[in-house]
């Protein structure tokens, strides 16, 4: 397979409005992005779900993850398609939803390895950019405001204390209150993944930093929607902006 250009090279500028939401694992990016997209009538693109889907396709073929080649991941990833479900762009594998599989721990533990592969990054970025040719989008990930859409008119970088991120993630997964021991173990896993993802998790210089540790999700969404409305205001529009 011939080498692809670096992720970002030569892509046409997005036709729609782009809101980029970046941040570390379990900082609430995806659920916040979905809610913001619903509030504004935009499409939500979860770039992490594409890395997860590519990883799941390759995992299905078997073999030790340490020996997966970039070519074998890309070949396997050709089974991924996208379908619109309301305002959410869902990755399918062989035309079938794979949400539970891609969010499971076997995939979570290998996805960072796959996400280091430059041509896999280009594969994800091409799909994300193609969506922004057709729709106004809220895209969440790690490098959306720096690499994928460096000219996005609104960039958000979400952070939260690792313990709080772990607590939220477990509460969502277990549908009950997690114990301190469970939170401690999840915090360790999250911090390890943060470190594996550290090269691509970059806050753009012009991103608005929001620390969600003490915010409810409704408050985070409200802030981002208010910022989006402020950025998209037409000249001469004097209606008040809620902040
Ligand atoms: O967002 P989520 O945690 O589901 O992302 C899964 C993985 O995909 C991350 O741990 C990271 O390795 C990778 N990723 C990335 N760049 C993005 C989005 C996700 O490297 N823009």
Fold blueprint:
Elements: E1 18-22, H1 29-40, E2 43-46, H2 47-60, H3 70-77, E3 80-85, E4 88-93, E5 96-97, H4 99-103, H5 105-115, H6 118-134, E6 137-141, H7 144-148, E7 154-159, H8 162-174, H9 180-196, E8 208-211, H10 217-232
Parallel strand pairs: 1-6, 1-7, 2-6, 7-8
Antiparallel strand pairs: 3-4, 4-5
The structure holds cytidine-5'-monophosphate.
Residues 25, 47-48, 51-52, 111-112, 115, 141-144, 193, 197, 200 line the site of cytidine-5'-monophosphate.
Structure in words:
By secondary structure, the chain is an alpha/beta fold. The chain folds into two domains: about 15-40 and about 135-230, P-loop containing nucleotide triphosphate hydrolases (Rossmann fold, 3-Layer(aba) Sandwich), CATH 3.40.50.300; about 45-135, 3-Layer(aba) Sandwich (Rossmann fold). The chain has ten helices and eight strands. It has helices spanning about 30-40, 45-60, 70-75, 100-105, 105-115, 120-135, 145-150, 160-175, 180-195, 215-230; strands spanning about 20, 45, 80-85, 90-95, 95, 135-140, 155-160, 210. The strands form two sheets. A five-stranded parallel sheet has the order 2-6-1-7-8, with helices on both faces. Strands 3-4-5 form a three-stranded antiparallel sheet. Strand 3 (about 80-85) and strand 4 form a beta hairpin. Helix 1 (about 30-40) crosses helix 10 (about 215-230). The N and C termini lie far apart (about 50 Å). Residues about 1-10 have low confidence and may be disordered. The structure holds cytidine-5'-monophosphate (C5P).
